[in-house]
TrEMBL record:
BP GO annotations: GPI anchor biosynthetic process
Protein name, entry field: GPI ethanolamine phosphate transferase 2 C-terminal domain-containing protein
Stretches assigned to the GPI ethanolamine phosphate transferase 2 C-terminal domain: 632-948
CDD domains recorded: GPI_EPT_2 (cd16024)
Gene3D superfamilies, alphabetized: Alkaline Phosphatase, subunit A (3.40.720.10)
GO cellular component: endoplasmic reticulum membrane
Family label: Belongs to the PIGG/PIGN/PIGO family. PIGG subfamily.
Taxonomy of the source species: Eukaryota, Metazoa, Chordata, Craniata, Vertebrata
The UniProt record lists the keyword Signal: no
Length: 965
């Protein structure tokens, strides 16, 4: 069966996406969870350890605090409380930290530093799985043992106001609640006002025990304008005033003889230097934790805050409220909080925490007896029993006190060892699903490599021996073997995986696909070997690996090999910047060879100009009269590209090592430089119109001009840039009307382009109409990018269009680069512009504010689409430009150019994806697997999905041309 290269490439990528999804399902483990279905009850708590038969050991758990108020400020960085900003903008909190009855700590969150996983960590004490970063957009009900369930079970009355993620996680736990969406990041006032408006009336009431307030405004300001925004100070002052009001109310309500109240100030995560979060940099993981209560001793001066884990909050609050510790907790007690209690109570609390961790260790670790913490616990428990015996006998000597403090230290050591052992076991990899997914993507890569000569031939068709393979005896034998292996794995003792939990229909479909792919590969390889044996060396010289193929493999593999290092992943942008600079220098050399050296023979031309022997010349020889200006423009194009790339490198610092250094975007986004940013944005929008409008119809040109004007109006409405006609001050709005105004023109341009494409396919085979339709669709995509880009990133879009225009006019056609070579260049430039935008392999650099442009409220599908589009706009723009360019070339000189481009795009994406999956599997126990390698894996998966969509569009354009032919 013969199919075109584009159809073959798209089909391969769709299978690859399935393999990647299966691999991700097995790679990202579920967090450690107890296998017990029931939740811990007070009756399940162990008694105090005791040596002998004295019946006076205690099983009762007495609460230490009457009321607890938890103020969780989203994206509250450590330095916002303990640093210079805290001293300036949170004076009351700073006074409590330095001189009040409080304990202050730096609580370290674990990656991923996004809201939903962090709420899980605070309420269950467990470390959520990394894949929770995806589930953050749609939080499911939390069914595992947690603090709120325990509180409700003993009759505690809970009130909640704030982020509605809590309501989705705990839908039946609050006696009163009011939620606000956390995803509409343009709003940083109403989201907090909706919480504070309940505060005065609630604090006066006495019908509640736990009050949880989750403020979102600070996080939204960070997403909009970063941690150094002028809006940060007023927001921190607002939070400080709220804390003062709560603390005063709690203190005034305490009476002599009653239990003290507790005020907890914390953050779910921090904020990076760009205002986002999700990664593992210090500003993202270091959050303040301040516990304020009259039970604590008043300070005489602030000490440096100690460091605790965020999961340590759960056991501390649970025992402070007289609740059992959740089953899945891996945190340790924050011992200073219990210093005001008796030594017996402190030992009791330590024993309960250690006992819970031992139960979880036994349930999750087969060889738990070999763990260091297991031995330490039993030793501490035995010493604790001896102490209880002496205590109950009435011993009051100094020996008893010294022994008690010694037992405390033993428990602390045991807790640290147990928590460390459990934290290292983030989960168990589903190796069966990982191996099947890995083999699927490896099969796709082998198929693409075996089909290379046919896919890049003049006919651009690939022979797939599908029918003969499916009707062969080896296929059925292989199918039966795979079914047997599947049954064996799924019925083996202790095996539990995703594939085994599927019903037989999808499982058989996966096995059939796996077996068919392998048989097709074997058939293609056998046919290739037989063909090579018959033709001998002539086939090698005629259709073997060309210089282009060698360049493709060396460039791609060089980048892929570097991904085996965590440092190269963190600084991958440097690799692509180097490759782009090298490419520009090679192009400059080719231009010099074309215009300053005499014509060489055909073999020299093949070496320097990379022209194909089986392709006709695109252009006739340039006359002597016209060669002058053309020559100098061609010579200046790679140099201009180098200059643009150097400018864009300085615009956004990315990666890890230099992320903290100031760049042009920081300078432009300062309030005092708003005029400069406004001029730069306006100039960039003018350049965008100049480069895009050339190939559009008159109607599309007008719509594009009005749309770009609307882009500037939107940014001025939200306060990013200035209106040139603005005389006085203007209130900042959400810019919803202006953004929707632009969306209308985007849809209009896309509709016009799609209409022209349909007319060129159905009514008339007009290549000019088809080309115009493609460029109009491309202009609509450019307008959408301009709307979603922040103002300081508009020069990235303008420079991208400048390079595309000059390269297309003076380089790719003039030097007669074929479709495959042009595809490589587009792919490399797309990768480089991904990083020029300020993106990295860290989730924290994803600009989620782009997902809410023009939206009044959170809508999942539009928000996800806009965020993904904004993030991958660089690769998408260059891929769309490639489709437009190759389609015009297809109509003029090479009918197979689109098929070649689609195939090369699929191969360029498949090689790094497959190799990286193998690397990640081998490095799954690496120290940086969750902080560095896992985010990159998600980026690779998403990039492959984007490439699949692009290749399907390639295929549609290719099939249109075939149909017209």
């Amino acid at each position: 069966m013969k199919i075109s290269s584009s159809v073959f490439a798209s089909f391969c990528l769709m299978i690859e996406i399935s393999g990647i999804a299966l691999f991700l399902r097995g790679f990202f483990p579920a967090p450690i969870k107890s296998s017990f279905s029931s939740k811990t009850k007070l009756s399940d708590l162990p008694a105090e350890p005791l040596t002998g038969n004295n019946p006076n050991s205690s099983t009762i758990l007495v609460p230490l605090f009457h009321r607890v108020v938890i103020v969780l400020i989203d994206a509250l960085r450590e330095d916002f409380v303990f640093g210079a900003k805290g001293r300036q903008y949170m004076p009351y909190t700073q006074h409590l930290v330095e001189w009040g009855s409080s304990h202050s700590f730096v609580a370290k969150a674990r990656a991923p530093t996004v809201t939903m996983p962090r709420i899980k960590a605070l309420t269950t004490g467990s470390i959520p799985g990394f894949i929770d970063v995806v589930m953050n957009l749609n939080s499911p009900v939390l069914l595992e043992d947690n603090l709120l369930w325990q509180a409700k079970a003993i009759g505690k009355r809970i009130i909640f106001y704030g982020d509605d993620t809590w309501i989705r996680l705990f839908p039946k736990h609050f006696m009163e609640y009011d939620g606000t969406t956390s995803f509409f990041v343009s709003d940083y006032t109403e989201v907090d006002n909706n919480v504070t408006r309940h505060l005065d009336s609630t604090l006066k009431r006495d019908d509640w025990d736990i009050l949880i307030l989750h403020y979102l405004g600070l996080d939204h300001i960070g997403h909009l304008s970063g941690p150094h925004s002028s809006l940060i100070g007023p927001k921190l002052l607002e939070m400080d005033d709220i804390l003062r009001k709560i603390h005063s109310s709690l203190t005034s309500q305490e009476t002599e003889g009653s239990l003290p109240n507790l005020l907890v100030l914390c953050g779910d995560h921090g904020m990076s230097e760009t205002g986002s979060h999700g990664g593992s940099s210090d500003p993202e993981i270091n959050t303040p934790l301040v516990l304020i209560s009259s039970a604590f001793k008043r300070k005489v001066g602030m000490d440096n805050p100690g460091t605790v884990e965020q999961v340590d909050v759960l056991p501390t609050l649970a025992l402070g409220l007289g609740l059992p510790i959740s089953q899945n907790n891996v945190g340790c007690l924050i011992s200073p909080v219990f210093e005001h209690t008796s030594l017996r109570d402190q030992l009791r609390f330590m024993h309960l925490n250690s006992f819970q961790l031992i139960c979880l260790l036994k349930d999750s670790t087969p060889n738990f007896q070999k763990e260091e913490g297991y031995e330490q616990f039993h030793f501490a428990e035995k010493s604790h029993g001896n102490w209880i015996k002496l205590y109950l006998e009435g011993n009051t000597s100094e020996v008893l006190s010294n022994l008690g403090r010694k037992v405390l230290r033993q428990y602390v050591d045991a807790l640290k060892a147990l928590s460390s052992a459990l934290s290292k076991q983030l989960g168990k990899y589903d190796m069966y699903s990982m191996i099947v997914g890995m083999v699927l993507v490896l099969q796709v890569l082998m198929a693409l490599l075996l089909a290379m000569p046919e896919a890049l031939s003049r006919g651009a068709e690939v022979e797939i021996p599908l029918t003969s393979s499916l009707l062969s005896l080896p296929f059925y034998m292989l199918w039966l073997l795979c079914c047997s292996i599947h049954v064996l794995v799924c019925t083996s003792a202790g095996s539990s995986c995703y594939l085994c939990n599927l019903s037989w229909i999808p499982a058989l479909a996966a096995i059939t696909t796996f077996s068919a792919m392998l048989c097709v590969l074997l058939s293609m390889a056998g046919r290739k070997l037989a063909s090579g044996a018959k033709t001998g060396t002539k086939n090698v010289n005629g259709s073997g690996f060309s210089e282009l193929d060698v360049l493709l493999l060396i460039g791609t593999l060089g980048n892929v090999i570097s991904l085996g290092s965590s440092s190269f992943i963190e600084e991958e942008h440097q690799t692509w910047y180097f490759m782009i600079n090298t490419l520009c220098l090679v192009i400059f050399q080719d231009v010099c060879c074309k215009y300053f050296r005499e014509r060489r023979n055909s073999s020299d031309d093949d070496s320097y100009l990379a022209s194909k022997q089986d392709l006709p010349s695109l252009l006739s020889p340039i006359s002597e009269q016209g060669i002058g200006s053309h020559k100098w423009l061609a010579l200046s194009t790679p140099l201009l590209t180098l200059a643009c790339c150097r400018l864009l490198r300085s615009l956004n610092q990315t990666g890890v090592q230099w992320m903290h250094l100031p760049d042009l975007s920081h300078w432009l986004n300062r309030w005092e430089h708003k005029a400069e940013l406004s001029l730069l944005s306006a100039a960039s929008l003018l350049l965008i119109f100049f480069f895009v409008q050339k190939c559009c119809s008159l109607v599309s040109k007008i719509a594009l001009a009005l749309g770009l004007l609307g882009v500037y109006s939107y940014r001025a409405a939200v306060g990013n840039v200035l209106f040139p006609w603005q005389l006085g001050s203007r209130d900042i709005s959400k810019g919803t009307v202006e953004a929707r105004f632009v969306y209308i023109f985007i849809l209009g341009i896309l509709f016009t382009g799609s209409k022209d494409l349909l007319r060129s396919q159905v009514i008339t085979a007009d290549s000019r109409l088809k080309s115009r339709g493609l460029w109009e669709v491309y202009s609509g995509i450019v307008l959408l990018c301009a709307l979603l880009f922040r103002p300081h990133n508009l020069p990235v879009l303008a420079c991208s269009l400048l390079i595309q225009t000059t390269m297309a006019q003076y380089i790719w056609k003039e030097l007669q680069y074929d479709a495959a070579q042009t595809t490589i260049m587009h792919y490399w430039f797309g990768q480089a512009f991904f990083y020029f935008q300020g993106n990295s392999n860290n989730i924290a650099t994803v600009d989620i504010s782009a997902g809410f442009v023009g939206l009044e409220s959170y809508l999942a599908i539009p928000a996800i689409f806009l965020t993904a589009f904004s993030t991958y706009s660089g690769p998408l723009l260059w891929a769309c430009h490639l489709v437009c360019y190759l389609s015009s070339a297809q109509d003029s000189w090479n009918p197979a150019s689109v098929g070649h481009g689609c195939y090369c795009f699929a191969l360029l994406r498949s090689i790094p994806t497959v190799v990286y999956i193998i690397l990640v599997t081998a490095l799954r126990y690496h120290l940086f697997i969750w902080s560095v390698f896992s985010p990159k894996l998600l980026y690779e998966a998403m990039h492959t999905l984007v490439t699949t969509v692009v290749c399907i569009f390639f295929t549609a354009m290719d099939q249109n041309h075939i149909g017209q032919s």
